[in-house]
Amino acid sequence: MSDIAYKSDIGRVRDLDEDSIAVVRLGTSYSSERTEISLLILADGLGGYNAGETASYLGVKTVAEFVLGGLLSKNKKNFLKEIFVPEKLQSSFWAQFAESKFGPNKKPIVSDSGKKNLGNGNYGNLLKSAILEANNEILDYATENPECSGMGTTVVAAILENGNLYVGNVGDGRLYIVSKDEIRQITVDHTLADGTLTRAVGISPSIEIDTFEIKLVEGDIILVCCDGLTDVVEESRIMEIILDNNPNDACNKLIELANERGGPDNISVIIAKMEE
Predict the structure, then answer these.
(1) Torsion angle, CA of 44/50/55/57, rounded to 10 degrees?
(2) How does the average pLDDT of the chain come out, rounded?
(3) Rounded to an integer, what distance in angstroms lies between the CA atom of residue 17 and that of residue 265?
(4) Sign of CA dihedral 130, 135, 141, 143
């Protein structure tokens, strides 16, 4: 089981918060075996592009719906333990979730490809399929709404189950593992030397997605964040704040520090600690 906190802040310069976050926690029980599953998603709409906030919203919404549908189809006997969805995602998310779970037509919120790619706990493939689905959703929306042409977003999505962490990533959002000895970046930034993004979700029909699988140990802490944090706060200070505080306080203090240092961009943070 993990202790999870999350927060997003507009920063000191931007007029809009173009970031979106979703955190989903599922508790499952089957054949007397209890399993905790957490889904963490962070998307950073591309600053300077049209409708970056719409792209990040669609990215998080689509990934959450797709992955949750896959998890529910895999875990036939389950109970929904806790779910956080940002207010701007709630109506569409819950409408589709309720129709799938309780509606007369039992319409799935995950496509057949998502079910096929789930396999036996193959969460890396599920995350990859979900991000591909988000890419298509954003492209379709931009086609139908020309004023949003060119919009895009970064996406970091992670599934945590029984100490195993599965990660999918496109862009320069980051996932770190923090322990008492080190802070370790798991994702790879898709940027050039000058910081220009080389990959994003929703920009092109063709997209390359990185996936990672990590075995965690007790006491490990997961940090998912956007460049609004890492561009202004060094990793050593991030590590210090996370180790010295509980996840909720650490989120608040990281965002406060980023704002003290100018807050040039939106700042979004998810922190999940493996409980001992």
Answers:
(1) 80
(2) 85
(3) 9
(4) negative
Instruction: Look at residues 111, 143, 137 and name the one whose alpha carbon lies nearest to residue 43.
Output: 137
The residue type found at 21 is I
Question: Residue 93: pLDDT band by 50, 70, 90 thresholds?
Answer: low
Q: Residue 64 has what pLDDT?
A: 96
- d(C-alpha 234, C-alpha 243), whole Å: 15
CATH match for 2-274 among 1.10.8.60, 3.30.70.250, 3.60.40.10, 2.40.50.630: 3.60.40.10
> pTM of this prediction?
0.85
**Predicted confidence (pLDDT) per residue in 101-138, tens digit:** 434 443 333 334 443 343 345 799 999 999 999 999 99
Report yes or no: 123 and 166 within 8 Å, Cβ to Cβ.
yes
